[in-house]
Amino acid sequence: MTEFAIQATDVVKKFGDFTAIDGINLSVPKGCIYGFLGPNGCGKSTTIRTLTGLLSPTSGQVNVLGLSIPKESEALRLKIGYMTQKFSLYDDLSVEENLEFIGQIFGMEKQTLLQRITEQLSTYGLDQLRKQRVSGMSGGQKQRLSLAAATMHKPELLFLDEPTSAVDPENRRDFWEQLFDLSDKGTTILITTHYMDEAERCHRLAIMESGVIRADGEPETLMANMGVNIVEVKTDNLRALKNTLIQRNEIRSAAQIGIRLRVLIHQDISDPISWLRSEFPELKDAEMNIARPSLEDVFVTVTGKGRQ
Ligand SMILES: Nc1ncnc2c1ncn2[C@@H]1O[C@H](COP(=O)(O)OP(=O)(O)OP(=O)(O)O)[C@@H](O)[C@H]1O
Questions:
Q1: Distance from C-alpha of 50 to C-alpha of 48, rounded to nearest angstrom
Q2: Which keywords describe this protein according to UniProt (predicted)?
Q3: What is the CA(253)–ligand 1 centre distance, in A?
Q4: Same domain, yes or no: 138 and 264
Q5: Strand pairing partners for 15?
Q6: Which end of the chain is least crowded, N or C, by CB within 10 Å?
Q7: Do 195 and 279 fall into the same domain?
């Protein structure tokens, strides 16, 4: 039987008249890296804050690591780590002082604390920077320190709210290596992002829009079950072609990618290339090929963006 780190049922969170999350159901298996993908303002941070007990849901049930939230949030606090996009570090303290401070908050004894600081500095490549003040550090260094701080007390469950938005692709890749290491050791990770490539690395994924989960599952399964075929078209006048194509109900979306138009066509059309040639005379001699689905296609298919 699958054990779940997080189970949320029909969770609603309102701010006054505004509904930020609207009936979310979520089951996150233990040890899983679970992604939350969605545009700015769709409710990702509100969901995380509700799951950690920082916000109380307006209605619905939340169970995290066997604890009923928000009632048992205080007990949960010791079992989770939480890293936000702002990194939440103390600028005037050095690298090791930041870790020491966090360890003290979690009530670690002096000897254990010193040993853990040494471990964390080594794991996150911060040995050389131990005396460095945070204010003089680069985005990538701050990110590593922030992850070291969030995992000081060896949490069972780690919440990461857009942790890579302030760093370059190389640092992002290194950061993901660290996440896979943590996952290998059994840590459950819930991470929010609006980067497609990052979402593809997750074991499971929920796609969120306007406070609602539009789809969830393994990235591969989501891509397989999209209900569309993808054709890439290379021809002239792509802008005009796009406007013509999206008038048809059979076409879910069309987006220009460089010199090609990526066209998502409903799966009930069995031979989409022949269909395009026969329905649109301007495509008679166009170069067309079937493309592999991407997570961006899934996103477009399950959210309102496909209807534009
Ligand atoms: N304390 C609050 N009071 C009122 N409205 C809020 C509050 N917190 C969030 N909201 C609103 O709820 C919606 C969801 O916000 P949230 O921060 O959860 O989105 P998000 O998906 O995390 O976005 P981002 O990627 O920009 O962080 C937004 O419209 C936001 O303005």
A1: 5
A2: ATP-binding, Nucleotide-binding
A3: 28
A4: no
A5: 18
A6: N
A7: no
